[in-house]
Design a protein that fits this description.
The chain is of the alpha/beta class. About 55% of the residues are buried.
């Protein structure tokens, strides 16, 4: 049984073990974006144990090849972390970052994210506080969320069904995936607005589908139909393209789920090219690095709107804690499609099942405020490792 310690206790909580669990699920229903069709997806669940008996859990994005992420943690991060004080979170982040040389990004930062979130989970349990309380921020007890997403694939009838389903569940903001030819995208943009009516906020996500000139045309269609933002219209490396797009159309721009570190997020935040910064905490180095990004955005009047996507329940819960604490949190993604990583891995129900009137309650228990179902972990880990016996 985990022990709870008073906030006044000064003893270190030494890390004794880090266990990486690669998890894979076959999606109950395929997800389609401009990237293509997803029939299966993976994450990495990270377990950090301490000599005090406390255990923290975290999540790494690890969408594909999760066993490789597990090996990275086991071979490169765990040797540096065992014996360290779990509460020295910033020092531990730097220690893990130095496991590999070169510019920060990729698998290393996603792997760090899982460990970092687990350390924050432990810190909350030591203090007997939810992470959103530990951050001493806005102390919101619920967070505005939007429904994600209307798939790019499918006919007009499926679009209408999706809008009706999201509206019946009380969502007041819906995101639509767009892609393909510009004319098709513009037609879909107009159709969704017509079917949703004026009372529903709409945003659009292109998943890098366009070059600059096509993005300008699509952006003008979004402006004409009153969309809240245009998400990832261009590949993330094309920072000059984002600046040019911002000068050529009026729809606010959103991006950031592809960023790993603050230095990657900073340029388009500092010059206010982006109106919405959307880091995914399980990619962006965990809570520690995501906080740096979101606080920089706040200092430049850029909204924080965390990405969740096909991640798991730990990602969703962590994003809720951050959104509850940060002053510039505008709205959080709430994926409404079936996802076993959200419905089966913990005692916290998926946000889409708990959201009411476009808001989602923040967990109240210490740390992340959830308990993992280790039987479900074992089943999904067997699939990831190819052990179906």
């Amino acid at each position: 049984m985990e022990r709870t310690f008073a906030l006044t206790e000064s003893r270190p909580h030494l890390i004794t073990e880090i266990i990486a669990h690669p998890l894979t699920q076959r999606l109950p229903a395929p997800t389609e974006t401009s990237w293509g069709r997803y029939d299966a997806v993976s994450i990495l669940l990270v377990e950090v144990r301490t000599d005090s008996g406390l255990v923290g859990v975290g999540e790494s994005l690890a969408r594909f090849a999760p066993v490789a992420y597990a090996r990275l943690i086991e071979d490169a991060l765990r040797p540096r972390m065992v014996g360290q004080d779990a509460l020295a979170i910033t020092a531990n982040w730097t220690r893990m970052r130095r496991a590999l040389s070169g510019r920060a990004g990729g698998m290393l930062i996603e792997a760090i994210a899982g460990v970092d979130i687990a350390l924050w989970d432990i810190a909350g349990k030591v203090a007997d506080l939810a992470i959103w309380r530990l951050l001493h921020g806005e102390a919101r007890t619920d967070v505005p969320v939007y429904a994600a997403s209307i798939n790019w694939g499918g006919d007009d009838g499926k679009v209408a069904e999706s809008i009706a389903a999201f509206s019946e569940r009380g969502f007041t903001h819906i995101k639509v995936k767009i892609g393909g030819q510009v004319r098709q995208a513009c037609e879909r943009i107009a159709l969704v607005r017509k079917l949703a009516g004026d009372a529903i906020e709409l945003s659009a996500d292109a998943n890098w589908a366009y070059g600059l000139d096509d993005a300008v045309e699509v952006g003008r269609a979004l402006t004409a139909n009153g969309y809240v933002w245009f998400e990832e219209p261009l590949r993330p490396e094309d920072e000059d393209g984002y600046r040019m797009l911002r000068s050529r159309c009026d729809v606010p721009l959103a991006a950031g789920e592809s960023n790993f570190t603050l230095d990657q997020a900073a340029p388009l935040v500092r010059d206010r090219t982006l109106s919405y910064l959307q880091p995914n905490v399980t990619r962006a180095g965990g809570i520690t690095e995501t906080l740096r990004m979101a606080r920089l955005a706040a200092s430049h009047d850029v909204a924080y709107a965390p990405h969740v996507g096909m991640s798991g329940i730990i990602c969703e819960a962590t994003s809720l804690h951050l959104s509850a604490a940060l002053p510039n949190a505008r709205v959080m993604e709430c994926p409404a499609t079936a996802n076993l990583f959200k419905s089966e891995l913990a005692d916290l129900a998926p946000g889409a099942d708990r959201a009411t009137g476009g808001f989602l309650a923040v967990p109240q228990g210490p740390g992340l405020g959830l308990t993992i179902d280790w039987d479900a972990v074992a089943s999904m880990e067997a699939l990831a490792r190819g052990d179906t016996a």
